[in-house]
Amino acid sequence: MDTIKLKKIDIDKKEIKRPIIIAGPCSAETEKQTLETAHELAAKGIQIFRAGLWKPRTRPGSFEGVKNEGLPWLKKVKEETGMLIGTEVATALHVYQALKYGIDMIWIGARTTANPFAVQEIADALEGVDIPVLVKNPVNPDLDLWIGAIERIHRAGIKKVAAIHRGFSTYNKIKYRNEPQWQIPIELKRRIPDIQVITDPSHISGKRTLIREVSQQAMDLVFDGLMIETHIDPDNAWSDASQQIKPDSLKEMLDSLVIRSSNGKDLQMNLDMMRQEIDQLDQELWDVLEKRMKLSKNIGMFKKENNLTILQPKRYNEIMNQRVEVGVSKGFSNEFSEKLFKNIHEESIRHQKYIMNSE
Ligand code: PEP
Ligand code: MN
User: Which residue intervals of 306-329 are DSSP H helices?
Assistant: First the structure.
């Protein structure tokens, strides 16, 4: 891997105090909505404004952004409020357009990070430019793919590269829109110690009521900033309505966060703590399985004494159906739940067979 030495994101050559806050609507919709949101945010002390112009949408036909039309609106935001302005780019053309209109920082979206050709095209378009580039994690939980995208941008000569953690797509039923998998950005910081990681609680949670808890967790894990979708009229937003909050609520939420100071060792300590917890849980899993196996052996003795068969199909079907149902209700897949209990049951039968056939 390349050795990646990075500079911090700054404003007028001054490093921004942690947490770096980036706020603004998911999408610029109209000039009025963009400017009103920006003015309210600036009045609350926000220094970096975000708004998507080119929106990568899962299905065609939904709102795909105002595209180039919104560039002069962002320029106006900068002129009228003094905030830095940032937007998402997905192609070389987006980069050229953004630079032409004085965009101060750009970010690469999660779907784009997952595509090395697209990231390389953006990197090539950035050759000779000196603006911060924020790389969102790819939609899939692949740390190397994320690091690969960061390396491509860094190789183009960009020194202010930061990462945005927006969570990972999952088929599991979870309370968030995207699974945070905190260990992945923690490991990213371990592999690239210089990198600033900005958490995106809006896209992780998908719900405005959950933004605070994800933000607090990000601060407790000592990440560097937060990117939060903020809209003057969230309920009527043209994209991601359920996860956007008003500038007022943003300010209230930020004021309520507990920001503890940190030193460089904290992230490694947090990772170690989470790993220790996993080790402990794995030990408990074995202890529970051992207890279950002892009980199952007792049942084996009972069956032997009373001349019953080992496999009792009715009981087996009941166990499988009920256990899979519980597993699925806890967010595990059907396949995993079935495999897990099939294995446990087979191991019980093996032990019981041994008991039945012994003297
Ligand atoms: C966004 O920031 O509005 C966005 C499209 O995010 P992501 O790439 O994380 O889905
Ligand atoms: Mn969005």
Answer: 313-329
Name the nearest CA neighbour of 215 among 271, 166, 257: 257
Q: Give the residue among 222, 231, 211 at the shortest CA–CA distance from 188.
A: 222
Q: What is d(CA 162, CA 359) in angstroms, rounded to the nearest whole number?
A: 68
Ligand nearest to the CA of 54: 1
- Enumerate residue ranges in the chain where pLDDT < 50: none
Which residues are near ligand 1 (CB < 6 Å)?
26, 52, 109-110, 136, 166, 203
Q: Are 102 and 75 in contact (CB under 8 A)?
A: yes
Domain boundary among 204, 238, 262: 262
Check: CB of residue 112 under 8 Å from CB of residue 92: no
- Shared domain for 184 and 303, answered yes or no, is no
Are 209 and 275 within one domain?
Answer: no
Q: Which atom of ligand 1 is nearest to the CA of 52?
A: 3
Mutate-to-test residue for ligand 1 from 136, 231, 244, highest number of ligand atoms within 8 A of CB? 136
Q: How many CB atoms lie within 10 A of CB 101?
A: 17
Evaluate whether residue 65 is within a structural domain: yes
User: Sign of torsion, CA 149 152 155 157?
Assistant: negative
- Residue 44 CB neighbours (<10 A): 17
Q: Which domain holds residue 308?
A: 269-357
pLDDT in tens, 198-233: 999 999 999 999 999 999 999 998 899 999 999 999
Nearest protein Cα to ligand 1, atom 9: 110
- The model carries a pTM of 0.81
Give exposure, 262-287, as e/b (b: 16+ Cβ within 10 Å): beeeebeebbeeeeeeeeeeeeeeee
β 161-165/133-136 pair status: parallel
CB atoms within 10 A of CB 312: 12
